[in-house]
Structures are given as structure tokens and as C-alpha cells.
């Protein structure tokens, strides 16, 4: 049963971090019975609220009617009203997506811009929505997480709560009837044009003839799956945490460790989804474990690289290093570390530190400014001690660097000439000699 008392009880149990009379809420209101009942309940609690309404302009005069209805409601409850009108059909056509997907994207993107400091968005999703969502996810072949349905709380990009999620549509309609609450009907809800409507209007009523308690059973099953998922997630996170290592600044997982759970796709999925991979790529990732050295697989955000007996986890970046150096003294931060520059009279350089992370260059031959940049396949230089030029890809390959470290290598250049492959070797043409007057000493950390 839904009333003010049961609403408050659910709120206190599910949202211990939120206070009805102390926090500030934005209620998403369409004009339908669900959101109107939510607005009425929040009004009765005397909470600080505003109303947000999106006019999707999909139903002509009916869309205008909904907007006017919500405007009147906000005035009645003395709630601030925020409106957003958009051509949803044009948006869907432009970005090549379905109307429902476009409407959802528009709605939540706008909500993100609305929420001020400390505000919480409230939506009127209810138990019937939860049942429909679980069925849709099941039919799509989702994993365990999809079968948990709609969460009652989000604290990511949106600070969101769903305080009607445990109440059924029937209970919401009964509350509206008893309280004499007016609302508007969306005529599109009666059509089976969308998957959710087809499940709601056709499939579930047919199943209820065989299993009268099907909605309750699915809802409770979703809650049990959500509880089980927390246990599964903790177990798998603990497992992968023990196996992850950082080697030379690169996150790696030993292949031998992965083989412990290779036959369990649930473990692999729990790991790879962190790095932007999709469930359909699980088999490809497993093949990578047996691939040749240097083979890799990319997601939208990372690459998994097979290197020796490990899988390296390397973030993708579209920002190549390109930093100008204007002064001969001081410290410079670059993506891979720090460079410290010193100009020294050649006569004061008594000994040379052989550490490849320290470069001693003939400052007399250098033209300023210098450039620190990511190496390119066409680059070449004359490695110290050699009289012949060498292409950068061949030089770096000879260092036996892992693919990830090779990709991160940077050079210090003067014009079109490379002075130093940073951290590895200077160019023989820029070494200092007995004729050098001034030395540029650079230390890489």
C-alpha cells in the first residue's frame, strides 16, 4: 500500500544519506500519474523541491497539454519550474538512434546540467518498470548485472534517487484515486510501437494468466540477484587485486594467474569491463593469452598487450607529447616524468655519469627553443658511439622494450635533428668535445 507513511518508511530504509526536510530535490515530472504522485508526496513532506519537465514534441497538441499541466502543478505546489523543449525526432535522425533512446539521452543530458551543488534528482520509476526492465535485459542476453534491473540510487554523474521503486503501478493509481489527484495520460503508452509497451501491454498479461504472481516473483528475483551480485563482485575484485602488478610503471597481469580462471567467463568479464572491453570480446581476450609476443587487443579506452608472460594494460591516449623548451636552466614536467636542465661551463665537467637518464650535450651546437615530442616512425639519429644513422623504430626495437614502453618513448629535438632519445641515448653529433665551451646537462626522472 502506498501512502505518506509507507513512502517515508521506504525512503528512510533505502536512502539513509538523504534527508527529506534538509536536502534539495529536482523532481522529473512528465505529467503522468507516476511523477505526479511523486510530486504530491514530496509536497506533503514539505521538502525543498523544484520540477523539471522535458517537452519532446513527439505528440503535437498532447505534448503542449502536458507542459501546461506541469506548469499549473508547479504553481499549485509553489515549486520552481524548469522546462526544456526539444525536437526529439530530428535529434534521433541526426544521431541515427531510436526515438526512445534519443528521448532518454536528451532527458538525462539535460538533467546533468540542471543539478546544482548538493541537489538530488528524483524519478518516478516503480516496481512495474523494474519488472519490464529485467525482462528486457533477459531477452537481450545480458549478464548478471543487467538482471538486477534499475538501481534505486545513483551517485555518479547524476545524484539520483528513485523513491517509488518498490511500489506497483496499481498502488500508485490507487493512491492518486484516493487523494483525488489529476494527471494526464500519454496516448503512446497504449500502443505496442516500443518494446517496453509490448511487454507491458501484451506479454505480461498473457503470462499472468498462467502465473498470477509473475510481477512480484520477477521483482523479488531481481532483488535477490542484486544481493548475489554484490557477493560475486567482491569475490572477483579480491581475486584480480591480488594478481595485478605494476612493472616499470605499467599495470600488468601474469598470464599464469589469468589461467586460473580462464574457463570462467564471469571472472574474465568482471576484469575486462573495467577497461572498456565488451562482453562479446571475452573470447578474443582469451585468445590473446596464447598469442605471439606483441599481439594486442583494443577497447574504447585501453589496450591489452601480450608481452612475454604478462598482459600489459595500457590506457589509450590521443594526446602525443609536444612540449617546447625555451630556457637552458630549470625544471620541465612532461607526460612521462620530469626533465631538469643545467648549463655548465665545459671546464667544470670533471666526470660524466654513465646513467642513460642523464644527457651531456654540446650547448654550442644547439638552437633554441628545443622540442620534447613523441617519436615518429620516420625519425632517425646517430646513436652515441656510432657514425651511422639509425631509424628510431630499429633503435627502440634493439633495446628490447615492451610495446607499451616503446610507445611511450620521447625525444628531445633541435629543429629537425634529434639530440636525445630521452632516457636511452644521445646523438653522437651533439656530444661535447674538448672544443666545447658550454655543456647542457639534462636529468630525466
Write out key terms for the chains shown:
445 residues, alpha+beta, 5-stranded antiparallel sheet, 3 domains, Uridine Diphospho-n-acetylenolpyruvylglucosamine Reductase, domain 3, 14 helices
Explain what the structure shows.
It is a single chain. It contains 14 helices and 22 strands. Helix 3 links the parallel strand 2 and strand 3. With 445 residues, the protein is of the alpha+beta class. The protein has three domains: 221 residues, Rossmann fold (3-Layer(aba) Sandwich), CATH 3.40.50; 72 residues, Uridine Diphospho-n-acetylenolpyruvylglucosamine Reductase, domain 3 (2-Layer Sandwich), CATH 3.30.465; 123 residues, Phenylalanyl-trna Synthetase, Chain B, domain 3 (Phenylalanyl-tRNA Synthetase, Chain B, domain 3, 3-Layer(bba) Sandwich), CATH 3.50.40. The strands form five sheets. It has a six-stranded mixed beta sheet with strand order 3-2-1-4-6-5, sandwiched between helices. It has a five-stranded antiparallel beta sheet with strand order 7-8-11-10-9. The longest helix is centred in the middle third of the chain and has 30 residues. The chain is 37% helix and 23% strand. Helix 4 packs across helix 5, helix 6 crosses helix 8 and helix 6 crosses helix 9.
